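Suppose a colleague, Dr. K., hands you the sequence of a protein chain of 606 amino acids and asks what its three-dimensional shape might be. Before reaching for any lab equipment, you can write down a predicted structure in token form. Begin with the sequence itself:
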Amino acid sequence: MNTIDRAPTMAGIRTLPEALLLRSEQQPDRTAFVFLRNGEDPEETVTYRELDEASRLRAAAFVGAGLAGRNVVLLFPSGIEFIRTLIGCMYAGVAGAPVQVPRRRQGVERLRRIADDAATTVVLTTGEVKRDLEERFGDSPELAGLTLIDTETLARPPVADGAAYRSLSPHPEGTALLQYTSGSTGDPKGVIITHSNFLSNVIETDELWPSGADGTVVSWLPLFHDMGMLFGIVLPLWTGVPSYLMPPDAFIRRPARWLEAISRFGGTHAAAPSFAYELCVRAAEEGRTADVGSLASWRVAVNGAEPVRWSTLSSFTEAFAPYGFDPRAMAPGYGLAENTLKATGSPQDRAPAPLWLSARALGEGRVEAVDPRATGATPVVSSGVPVLGTRVSIVDPTSHALCPPARVGEIWISGPCVSPGYLGRPQLSEETFRARIHSPGDAGSGTHLRTGDLGFLHDGELYVTGRIKDVLIRKGRNFYPQDIELSAESAVPGLHPNCAAAFSIDDGAEEQLVVVVEADGRVLRSAGAPVLRDRVREAIRENHRLETDRVLVVRRGALSKTSSGKVQRRACRRRYESGELDAVAVAVSTADAVAVTPSGSVEASR
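The predicted structure, expressed as tokens, is then:
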């Protein structure tokens, strides 16, 4: 196995393309990326030299097409061509906006909204995606005026005239990427990520979770998503370790494929949202992990949920301890696109442990430790610490003063990973990215990123409790929707992770609590919608002493979610209020079961 000393070789590197160029010169034949076509079999392998040459050829083509200095949409499935194009864009000074390949008309509409927001009509993609879009959505008005370009067949200058593309080099403060937020509203925002943002974030990530010379990344995460891009592409490229990538669908259809690949290829680093670990636990419980070998090589298992669930961490480590999984590998973290990605993370080689708090006090914004056996005790898990130049503060979202110890407040971040702002939104950028703390004597008197997330600091570590706009207030008490959703998910065996959305609506007289639960055909056949909704209400009443005004049961796939699987509560609420949710059944606290038609009208169900 090749070994390298990264510290001296990477000194002076200012951009990701520079890192690739250095790798191509020092380790030209070393494997950079391997794409597993079905999550199992290698379909394509690329070395550093091959990747750099292909990326530069695309960069030259982009410059020749007049795209330098412009924005484009990147519409690619997971695969190595996306990596070539992404780095080619960076070389050429083209700001790419990665977007999920549409499967339905709603995805085409999102594609158009992002293209319009980025002020571009150019969409770089593959020939296969181009043909599929034109065949399925060719008559869609959203595609009108967009130019779909197949990057693999785009005319390129001959290698003999390669001096021009050899001289391409982006400026560190130039825009490397436009990372669009998940778009829980119909108005997605483009986060400007500079080359220095990218490098700062990956350097901090490697400081927190070092890869080592024998490191190997295994990832199923979508590459257009910030977590998938950083852990699947940027981190391995910076650290010089191979990255094994698989299509997200391969994992979703059979979660054990991810674990099998980690075992097969000696994966040391892998990251995923919380629901992925929950799916793996379910696979183990159902006897679908027989082909998983040893997981002893896995040193860093990043859990990128906010907040992190103790039940998820403990059940995963228990389920896979027989496979050699080390509990110290589990590494909860916190991040967001506006900070490039990672903001905090749990130190390596330390098993997570919960902080047991009073749920009532937490609802009042206070941090009060209690005995785990006490009534109303709830476990809260640390999302780790910031490293190097990143700083985290807990701030009163109204007064902008620092919160005293043991108080919940808004999480504010400062440091080199914070984005300059949203594309074309100066006022919102000023409010979000350049907030100032009003406390006298504050050491970080500069500007801060307002995350909109709630949390607190304990012994220097960050604990995330929820989002400001999602907090539910009932009879003077605050409730975090993710706690209610967890109770709903646990009400009936067989429900999938992230299958519930809790939110409040105003019926003109008072705020009402609505919980939407999605279930697949197996659960509906075994339990039935009426039983499911009754058990959900009972679980919420028992765990939170809270009455649920309405419970809707919808078929699996009906909930609005982000590309990383997080439930979009505000989008679900809007769809509920507009009658777009096609419910199997709805329960009202004082009425019999009723059915909801697709138009949103309510009919008695007997």
